[in-house]
Every structure is written in C-alpha cells, then in structure tokens.
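Notes continue from the previous slide.

Worked example: a multi-chain complex. Inputs as given:
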Amino acid sequence: MGRYIIRRLLLLIPVLFFISVITFALAHAVPGGPFDREKPLPPEVIANLEKYYGLDQPVWKQYVDYVTDIAFRFDFGPSYRSRGRSVNDIFADHLPVSAQLGLAAIVIALVIGLPLGILSALKQNTLWDYLGMGLAIFGVSVPAIVLGPILILIFALALHWFPVAGWGTPAKMVMPAFALGLRESAIIARLTRASMLQVIREDYIRTARAKGLSERVVMVRHALKNAFIPVATILGPMFAALLTGTFIVEQIFAIPGMGKYFITSITNRDYPVVMGTILLYAVFLVLANLAVDLTYAFLDPRIRYT
Amino acid sequence: MTTPEITSQQKAAQRLSERQGKPANLWLDAWHRLLRNRAAALGFILIALLLVTSLLAPLVAPFHYAAGDSSEAHTVPAWLIDLLPGNVASYAKVSSKFLFGSDYLGRDILSRLIWGTRVSLPVGFIGAFTALLIGLVYGCISGYYGGKLDNLMMRIVDIMYAFPTMLLIILMMAFFKSTFADVRPGTVAATFNAINDVIDSVMGLPGGGMLFIFLGIGITAWMGMARLARGQILSLKEKEFVEAAHMIGAGDGRILLRHILPNIIGPCIVAETLAIPGYINTEVFLSFIGLGVDPPTPSWGSMISDGAATLRAYPHMVLFPALALAITMFAFNFLGDGLRDALDPRMKGTS
Amino acid sequence: MSKRFTLVLVVLMVLAAVLSACKPAEKLVTTINLNFATEPPTMDPGLSTDTTSVDCVNMLFMGLSRLDIETVETKPYLATEWSVSADGLVWTFKMRKDVFWWRWDPATQKAEKKRPVVAGDIVYAVRRVANPETASDYAYVDYIIKGVQAVNTGESTDLESVGVRAVDDYTVEFTLTQPAGYFAAIAGMWTNNPVPREPIEQFGDKWTEPGNIWTCGPTYLDVWEHENKVVMKKNPNWFDAKNVFIETYNWAIVNDDATAMAMYENGELDVTPPPLSDMDRIKADPTLSKELYIGPGTCTYYYGFNTSKPPLDNVKVRQALSHGIDRQKLIDTVLKGGQKVATTFACPGVFGTPAEDPNWKGIEFDPAKGKALLAEAGYPDGKGLAEITLMFNTSAGHQRIAEFIQQSWKENLGLDIKLANQEWAVYLKTVNTDAPQIYRMGWCLDYPDENNWVLENFHTTKSLNNPKWSGANAVEFDRLTEEAALSNDPAKRKELYFKAEQLLTVTDAVIAPIYYYTSVVMTKPYVERTYSKAGHQEFWYWKVQAH
C-alpha cells in the first residue's frame, strides 16, 4: 500500500512538468502583457516593470527560474496585479475559503443526492422515481448564474434568513454552498440511482436475501456500501473542481475564494497566478483521485493495491 | 464542469457494455424499446422539434434576431405581467407585440431564442461529435495496440485531464479572439477567420464568431471519451469473437471497424448524449465571462447571462431562455437514459 | 449580605440611568458600511493607478494639495500655501506642522505616534516614484519634474538629481522642466503623497499591511482581508479630526453590482452604485427612487476612428458616422443613468474644455447630414463601402452600447457594420498595434486640465496612444496643445484648447465623443454625505444618523 501511494505521488512530477510547460507556453502565446494599460505606459516604465519581475529575461530562462523557485523555495512568484502579494499569499488567503465552501457544498450534495438516488432506485419506475430524477435533472439544468440571484431574492431579501453575501460567518456560507451543492447533488442522485439499480441485482444481494436477512440489513449493509463506490469515485474530481471552479458563485456571493483567480489572472495576464492556480488544480486532482482509489480499497475488500 | 457528469455516465456505460452479449443485431430491438419508453420518446421528439426550429429559423422567427428599437426595450408581454412578482407592472412597458417580450434593445426574445438554437444546439452536437471522432479513435488505438503506445497515449490524457478544462478553454478563446485583428492573407489567423466566416454564413449568423467556441469546446471534450473507449476495448479484445477474427486472418483495421466498434459504439453514444447538456452549459459559462458569440448574434448562454443581471427588474428576460435551456436538458437526459435502457435490456424491468 | 446586594443593585441602577441618559444625546452612528467593487490592488501611494487604490490612499495619506470636490479647484491640504517663481519653473510649498505619522496596532487597537510628516517624506516619495527599481506605473506623470525622466529611464542613476528638495523640515521645493500652470494639482496627486521611509525599508512590499503601515491621513488601516473586507478607523489626532464623525469604515469587496444592490436593500451596505439593469425598478420604487442620486462624473466615453484604414481615412465618412449616433436615445433607453450627450473629448469641469461653452458647436445627432456626408464621400446610403468593424473590449455594458450604435447606424445611415470584442488585455494590444476601424475607449481625468486630455491622449508624438492621426490638422493640433501647455494665461489656454477640440472632434472627427459619465449612486437616507465632482469622495467628512 505504501509503495503504491509513493508511486502514485511520483507520477505527479511528470504531470506537473508537462502542465507547467503547456500553460507557460499558452499564457505567453496569448497577446497582451501584464503591463498594457488603457493609456499606454512609456516604454521606459514598462522596461522598469519587466525588469522588476524578471520579464526582461528570455522566456526559457523565466520558466527555469520559475520552476527552480518552486522546487527549492516553494515560492510561486509574485502577483503582477497585487503588488506586495505573492502567489503563496494568495493561496494562503483564499484556499482555506474555497476548501470550506467546497466541503460544505459536498456535504449538501451528499445529504440531498444520496437519499434521492436511493429512493429513486428502490421505487424504480414509480412516481417517486420520476419525481426524484426530474428534480435531479432540474438541478443540473438551472445554471448558477440564475440560481444564485434567485436564492438571494428568496432567502435573503424576502425571508431574511441569511445575509445576502460576504464571507466570515456560518450564515453567510449557507446559500453559496447550496448553490454549488445543488448541481452536484443532482449528479450524485443520478449516479446513486444507477449504481443502486445495478447492485441490487447482484448475486450477493440475492444470497443475502435468501439467507433471510431483513430487507433493511440487506440494503444498508450490503447494497448501500457497494452502491457508494462509484459515487466515491466522482467525489475526488468534484472536490477538486469545487476548490477551483466556483467563479460564478464566488462572484454572486462575494466570496474571497480561489475561483476568481482562475479567470481574472488570465484577464490580467498575471502569469505567476495563472501558473500557480493551474498547478494547484492538477495537484488537487491527482491527490483527490488517489484518495478515491484508497477509499475503494476500504469499501470493497476485493480491491487491493500493491 | 462536465467532468463528474461524464465520469458517472461512462461508468454506467462501461458496465452495460460488459454485459452486452452480441449487440450487433440488436439495433432494431433497441430502437423499438426506445420508442416504447415514453420519456425517451418525448425527449427524442423535443430534440427533433428543436432541430427543425433551428433549420427553419428564418421562417419561424417572427422578427430578425438583431432587429429592434431601443424605445421598445424591456417590454413585458401582456399575458405575463400579472404573473411576475414584485412591482414590475408599475414601470414595465406592456405590449402584445412580442410573445415573450423584448430585451434591452427592444429585440424580440422569442426570435432570438429561435435563432439561438443555431448556436446552442451545434455547440452540444459539436462537443459530442468531436468527442466521438477524436476520443473514440484515440481510445481505440490506445486500447487495441496496448503496451508502450497505450501507456504513452494514456499519460497524455492524464495530463490533459489534470488541466482545469474551463481554463484551457478560456486561454484558447482569448488566443482565437486575438487572432481576429490579423487578417493578412496566408497567415494561420486569416485561415481561421476564413473558416469562421464560412461557418457563420452557413449558420445564417454573420459575424457570430462561432468557430472559436466550437473549437474551444471540441478540443477539451474528447479526453473522457478516449478513456471510456479504451476501457471498452480492453475488455473486448480478449473476447472469443475477436480472437476468432484474428484466426481467420482479418487485419487490425477490419477487426476494429467490423468487430469491435459496433460493440462499443452504443455505450459511447449514450455517454455523449448525456454529456451534451454539459457542453451547452459550457457555452452559458463562456457567455457569462464574455467569451461567447459576438453580438448581436443570439445564443441561449448570452441571453441567460444578460437576463440574470436584470433578474429583479425584468424577470422575463431570463425566464424564457432558462426555460428553453432546462427543457433541452430534460430532453437530452430523457433520451440518454432511454438509450441506455434500450441498449441494455437487463437494466429494464427487473423489479 | 443583603446590604451588599442592595448596594450592587443601586450601583447597577445608577449605571443604567447614566447609560440611558447618554443615549439620546448620541444621535450619530459611528459605523458606515461601504463597498469597494474590487480588491484594492495596492494601498501604496506611489504604486496606485486605479480608483479603488486611490480611495484607500486618500483615506490613509495626505497630499500637498487636494481637488475641491465641489469646484474641482486645487486647494491647500498638507501644504498651507505655495508660490511659483517668475519663470514658472520653481514651485515652493509650505507644509502644515501638525500632521504626524501613526502606526495603528490592530491587535491592541491602539495607535502609536511616530514622528511629524516633514518635507523629507515628500522628497523621499518623489525620488522613490522616479526610481526605476520601484517600477511605478504613474512615474511618467512626474516627468515634468526636472530629472525624473532621466532617472526613471535609467539615463541617470543619481536620485539626488531629481528636482525636489527639502528647503527646511516644512518647506519643499520642486523644479520643473517647463512651466505648467496645473502643477499644484500634480504635486498633490496621490503618486506624490508623502510616504514613511522607515516601514518601507523594514517591510518592503508588505509595508502597507495593517500593523506595518504608517499613515498620516484621516484614518488608520485596521483590517485588510484580501478580496473580503477592509476596515479603517478614524484617526482622532488628525489635524481636522473634529470634523470627522464616523469612527469605523467597513468596506466590503463585492464585484457583482446586483449583489451589492441586494446587500444595500437588505441594509448590509449604506452606499452602492446601482446596477444599470435595475434603474427602471429603482426609479419606479417610492423608497429607492428617493435614495438615488445622479451627479456629474469625470469621464468621457468615445469611439475612436483609425484614420489610416479605409474607408475611415475619409473624413466625411467619419463625420457621417459621428452624426449617425443618436446619443440622447442611447442615454434614455439603454444607459438610463442620466448621462450627458458628449460633443467634446474633455468632460465638463475640466479646465479648458469647451463642453459647456455657448459658442461650441460639436457634432450632434443629425441623420440627414450624416446621409448627405456619406453621399458626398461617394457612398450614398453606404453603397460601395468596405466592411467596417467596430471593436470593443468584452463587457456587457460596452456590448449594449455597441449593439445600439450598430442599430443606430443601420437605421439612420443604412450602414451594416460588424461588431467584434476582445478580452481587455488582447484588446489593448490590438488597439495599440493594429487598431480596428472603430474602437471603443474612455478617459477619466487624472487632474482637471485639458492637458491631461488632448495632449496626453492625442498629441501625435507626446502621447503614447495609438492609433495616430496625421495630416495638416494633426500638426496644427500638436502645435495648439503644446502652446497651451506652456502658457500661463488662462484665457489664452482656453482659446487654444477650444481650437484643438474643434480639430479633434469636428474638423477631422478623429473620435466620436458619445457621452459624459455621471456618477450614479444609492445612499441610505440616514447617511449625510457629499457628492464629488472631482472623481474621488471624501468619505471621512460624511455623517451617519441614527437609524
């Protein structure tokens, strides 16, 4: 098991290497630089800025410097847009926010999605099933751009249950977590249903029933646990996506998370932030997938890693 | 955005293909089963209707998508005004000229929705098509030949996978759009622009800039499919009928095309049908961050993101595009689920 | 036991009585909730370029002069008075002696007095901006000060050669490269605010973080949670603190204006600019409409024409296009913020602009004249005209305007033009290197003088903007703007700028001014505030009534 984990972690190195090269090249291929202004700066001032950030070096040198700084000092470089803040500062400030929000969203997604999926599967082809799955498709169909403002209208402005937006208190977290979680809950519900339907037809369930175990025990102990495996597989990428891909919800609910840096760093040509966020995403994705594979082993005794 | 969705469906699709015995002749059966499934049939009809609407847009739409007078901006249809919450009635212009009302420049929302199918539907289909075309071929080669080649090809997919899809699209869109200014003949940019103009004029939406959206979505859509197809092939290529084909001396190409492909195409199509809503959603996101089609070309995504901004003042602006989107999503999901059930008889009616 | 209990009770009752007696006297609330639409990129005066950063700098620092928010005149601030030498080259500022540096400690919530703000702090600030190692964006604004350009461009490494010196602790003297009537405004610009050497040397780029920063303005910096909130506390020892009534300034950082509006309606914000899409609803709402204020702004929105690209190399086509824009309808039906039709480049309030001059006759909406000009140019009803592209940077607001104008030209001139948009950074590159036929731009004043507008944006060599225009009129334009910059005679400068504007917007129609911005804002009725015509607000002089 330990060797397996190490091997998987070592795989990160080539992945990160290629991703950093591609992003670096792509970011530099897009025209426009970080110091283009509405009223153009004098070439001398641009030269000063470029020198300050080491952008006067050849591109390959910039890349090498960038990678060595990360490798030896764990320094992801400065942000060109926010003077005085480094990419490390940005991670330190905003990653915890995204992590909290992402976790809350996943909890909401599971709390809604799992029961809905199980119910639909157990009552397959009944009104419950159609209702549940209808709800699930609905959850995927309403874009966050629309859902967010509607939540604000109902729960903040009309009912005054929660503050409109912001970050820092648990009450402020509810609506954005819900806006993020609803979509994911729909995905989880559908997957749980499909997986349950599959599992309850397996031979071991039939055996368990034949043994005379109560339906509850069969369902909870045997069916549910196995049906959860495919759900677990998507939780990893889902969490990685929630950590980073929440631009719209952050925008609507004024949340200081990582998502906005993915978009604004490109708009601002803030190369170190672009690179940093992409690498961060890759690390999370690989780690999340590893965690998922390890959960497999826990959930399904047939799976062993060596 | 679409990753989890694809993964889940792929799993399901993979599972069903494993149990699919000899499906080659089951196509007709599947078709009948599909039609008997009411939800799926409904989905199919809805999509067909959308396609017809999209083809006949110039005939069906009551107005031109770009025509309007801003003094008629934000009119609310008379039939809707009483249903809207808040005090919209106290300031909105009410008119029966436009069935679904008008937007911020007085353009007919219904007409723009109808023309918008020419962006949103192709986005979905192109995503699915490129996924099938590139992903399937890539996955087949990787899975069939295996070994070092497989290893290399799959590592490439791993790397692409670890990229945030959205970010890749944004970077590429920024790049494509930047090439716009470069119109010197002979350059890559000029070629892109020429192709883009052809596509725009075929769609009847000159100046839409659609090629770039298609490319952005297409380029990132194939990775999931490549993995799925490879997984399918791995489980098939050791099967007896493939070995039998080898024995009688069939070439690799023939085996892939005649024996393996028909066996895996079903699950792949199902997966892509279910992924189409994801591609359409991507277009909505791109519009939100301003990388959608060029105005005044209508797309559902741009209508939704424009409408969401005026949700409180003029809810009708977002209501209809969002409904259209939801209905389309339902249709594709119904159809996808139906296809899955139809292609995998075991999934159906066991209970 | 019971005695003691009675005593406690009595004390408590007295306390309660005292406390409740205090309350009615206290009519003001000491907290205000405001919004920055974006995270301030910096709070360092020398590095600030955007309005959010400048708002922060104004709260924390003081310049030698300030722009009066009512009259947009340059008034004494950190300087009590100033004088100019006869040749207009040497400017001497006398400084206040009662302004100090303070370090606020967020942990203990106490301020520590450091030392007085002296002339040396200004000298340090100006040299720091000039120093290429600081890499200040706005260094070029100081190029008018002797030696700054040479140092900033690396020609000279001698910081001492910069034309600023401390005559004594409270007198600072600037030497210029040429006379400039507007220099008092430049000396007071945020870029040249005094900054404290000690924390900058100690903390480097991190000197503006709470706890590190020394401030001398109306407030201290208490909290800066990036992308989330900023809190500033009143400096009770500031020289004019008796006129500052708000103790705590809570700034939320909310990008989305619809969200900010919802927060405002929910009482989470006291002031917010309303989303334009909500204007109809707000104007119809009995309460909200009373809280809406539309005041003059300090920016102009315009379309530029690339005069080297056919068919826009033909001046008649450019004039026709400018005549074909129904600006008032755009304002009434699309923008809805009470903007003013623009006929000049520089907006009203700027010294030298003919915007409100009764003799000024700019290009106005006139479809008949536009059509006639098109026909004269050889393109009746646009026939035979090559494809025209109008490009703007990606944004919902610009898109609406572009779509409207596209319609306007179609309707009024019979022209079909193509719209394209590019993301901001790409767009800037495109406009700078290979500008499309028509491009969108806007300009907001840095200081209220035409020099900041016509010369700095359209002079064919002194401005860095692209695309350039050329021809006899451009040469004349250059001459006019240069002469106006050097002149000390207000009447003559006005006349020169009148002519320059005429060439730019009418005779050669290099740009089509579209509208002058307004500042549109919602304010809760309990906030007693000022409205600024100068582009920045003086939040610290506001009051919040009990509510």
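Summary box: Residues 42-347 of chain B form a domain with the MetI-like fold fold (CATH 1.10.3720.10). Chain B has 15 helices and two strands.
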